[in-house]
Specification:
The structure holds two protein chains of two kinds.
Chain A: H1 19-31, E1 41-44, E2 49-55, H2 56-67, H3 71-84, E3 87-89, E4 104-107, H4 122-136, H5 142-154, H6 159-174, H7 178-195, H8 223-238, H9 244-258, H10 273-276, H11 280-284, H12 294-300, H13 304-309, H14 311-324, H15 327-341, H16 347-359, H17 371-380, H18 390-409, H19 412-420, H20 431-439, H21 447-463, H22 492-496, H23 500-503, H24 512-519, H25 523-528, H26 531-538, H27 545-560, H28 565-572, H29 622-630
Antiparallel strand pairs in A: 1-2, 2-4, 3-4
Helix pairs in contact in A: 2-3, 4-5, 4-6, 15-16, 15-18, 17-18, 26-27
Chain B: H1 2-53, H2 63-102, H3 110-148, H4 172-177, H5 182-186, H6 194-211, H7 228-231, H8 240-243, E1 245-249, E2 255-259
Antiparallel strand pairs in B: 1-2
Helix pairs in contact in B: 1-2, 1-3, 2-3, 3-6
Classes of the chains: A mainly alpha, B mainly alpha.
Chain lengths: 657, 270
Amino acid sequence: MTIRNALRDHGQRYRPRMACLKKAEKVLLEMQDPCTGVKSQPQRLVITIIPHAITGEDIIAWLADRFQIDAQEARSFGSMLVALGYIYPLQDHKRLVIKPDASLYRFQTPYFWPTQQWPVEDTDYAIYLAKRNIRKKGILELHEQEQYNHLHKWMNHKWDFVVMQAKEQYRAAKERKKPDRVVFDCQERAYWVVHRPPPGTVSAMDYGLDRRTDPNTDETQTPDYYERIMIFTQQSIMRPRVKSSVSIGALVKYSATYSGHDPFLSKCLPSSPWLTDDTTYWTMNMSNVEIPTKMRVERWTFSFKELLSDPRGRDDFRLFLKKEFSGENLAFWEGCEDLKWGTAVTMREKAEQIYKTFLARGAPRWINIDGKTMEITVKGLKHPHRYVLDAAQTHIYMLMKKDSYGRYLKSPVFKETLKKAICPEEHKFNEVQLEQNARNRRPSLSPIIIRQQEQEQRAKMAANAPVDITQLCRFTTPVPHLAVYTGIPDPPSVTASPSLPFLAHTPVCPSPISVALDSTSASERRMEASDGEGNAEVRAPEGGNLSKSRMALSLRRLLKRGCSPSAMFASLSPKCHTAATTSSRIQPITPDEPSQAPPRRIGNFFQIKVDIPPECRIYPIESEDEDEENRPASRDAVVTEEIICPWESLTRQNGTG
Amino acid sequence: MTSQADTELRLAVMSRWRRSVDELTAGRRRQQAECERAQNALSRVTSCFQQLAASLGSSADSSFLREEMDETRALAHRICSGLSRRLLRLLSACDSAPVACDSAPVACDSAPVAVDDRHAAERLWVLFLSAVENFLSDLRRAKDLIGQFPLTQRSSRRSLVNTGCTDGPVGLAARVALVQIPWLVLEEEPSPDLTNHIASLEAQLGELQQRVPVAFWSVESTQPAWAEVLSDAEDPEESLEDLMEVEVASSGGGSIRLPACCQGTCCWVG
């Protein structure tokens, strides 16, 4: 039963509002005027004469005159009226177009108009099909037969009613005079051609998904409704204003830039799939295509946003950054996007992973953001939510946009891509080929499969991630299961587990400064910068000034030593056994390393004491620094450190997982 | 001695009981037949109503048409109310029948009959509700159209859509008048106007659904698919294509009949 149920299930059951219907009705009523409307003529049939037939050319002429448009547009407008079902063709009734010749049309009666309020009922369609069955002795079209069988199965409980009603309607129609009968039959047939077209037809009544609210009902004026209006107006008042010259100028500029790329305003090479049913355009512009089209590459030059939003452009940019060893910016940005748009279940883990990989002291792919942003971000990470990395992401985005993007456009990578880009030729299909294309229409890849492919690709990329630091350590290992590093790992095997495949090959672990030095373009700046300035940027002191000065002290001390930074830091890093000063090269870990517990020397920058208040946790402890200098190569079994996220409690009891 | 008297007494009771059951069954059958006839009549009246409503807003629209519509609607209203009452009575009777059966000391063979009756009553119920639903959607559409095309002034006739129909209700009125339902004469009720009619039907529909717990999916149709194709043994109807033939004067002097609607070979079924 399709009785409207009293339950409000908030389901999506309503047709969306089609605003064109009311407007079309107005136009149609204007056409009826005996003086200024469309000229009608009688249609002569063998058995009778039926008035009120109009020719296609008359309709087009009337529309062109009324709206002051050219013939082509009037023709499209007329075709739209036919496609919606307000006018139906008398000859060739299945093709809902207007032909600009003497072919005849007639107006549809208002009972059969596709008005917003009346959805098309399946019961009516079942009755119609039963009537047709009776009349044509069972000869129906293929799709009608299928529909009939389907409805018979699903409406079985009211099928007797359907058949009875069909018979009665059939007999009732016979009571009318012959011309009226013919007209009514034509009307009904036209109605169902519009609302139940054969499969594969592009129908004007396609509207996508159903909506949650009924557009026909008036909205009740509850206090909630008024409150929403008030909030809306308040926000409108608070909105910052832009001079119209500026905003219009921006619109004009946008239109000028993009008009050549708009598939409606200009040609779509090779051909628009919606017009010719040929999908070359889509296959050529897929996200993982090797050679992009020239138009696509040109779009990347419009703005940085265009470049990033096109997957192929992003790949190209990533390649360029890899060559420049500043890929962590893009990786961080992508990680933030992933966090923002990902599922809530994985959010916490993702935030931790991003912190460990990009933000923490000693992170393998440390990004260069200013102190204030870092402070805000780390504070926010105590209670991670979807937008906690927004400030940092914006900063990195602006950095990439202002700096790397410009260089990318001048780079050989881009020039190469531009040279190789193809410019396809336009298709010229004739009618026969167009019909063949329409017959060969196939559905595209299911979005589930596309998503799976994307995930596979992402996993593959993560597996051979371009490591843009000169040294590898176990922190650069991609950790697929997002292991949480917690507390002090007493048994070394526990900590060694997540990164086994990498451990054998990892040499020393770099400190963030070396990473920063090698990889970012700001690294040169840092080396030259004065200590205080550099420190203020890099490690925003949250504690008192004491720690700031201590950090300044430590860095200055380190830089004064005169060794190359990498050697210095190598000596201090946990895995180095050799004396600091003797080696100036990174040495790989000896093969017997993984079997025993690698004695962890704590680099200054990693040690975190338990009794330090949480806020200062990420900063090195200066007292150890002094001590370290005095025992350069001592092998105390010291408390090792994993990078602890600042929002985790510092109990050592946190096991793995 | 006493046992024989007992047996005789029992037999007498049984025969009286059986007679009453038979009477009940016959009564129920009569009621069912009456309801089925009423259902047919309702279908007829609603089909006529639909034909009339299809002319609303077109060039065939007139105040005469609207009066005809009102009369048809009133008739449908009377049939609906009478039929709903009788169906309710029928269903409740079928409900009580199995109970009476259980109390009989001897296994009665009216049990399957009662179940069949119950099925038939449910089927009629479902058909009635579908018919009312269908009629309701027609009523709503008619109300909207009357609102959109009021025939109050002479000038409003200019905006009527030129659909090719010239007059609507001829012949339909006669068909409607043929409807013979026993209670139409007996139970005279004032007919409501359109808005009230719609509102009352909606209320009735909701109420009926809630009062009688009939599982509509358990009702099956009595006819298989495509059965109606063979059913119509009346005068063979011409297809729409035949009706729409045009005469084309050929050069040879004779006239060729061509189907007006489809010139090409695109459809052979039309």
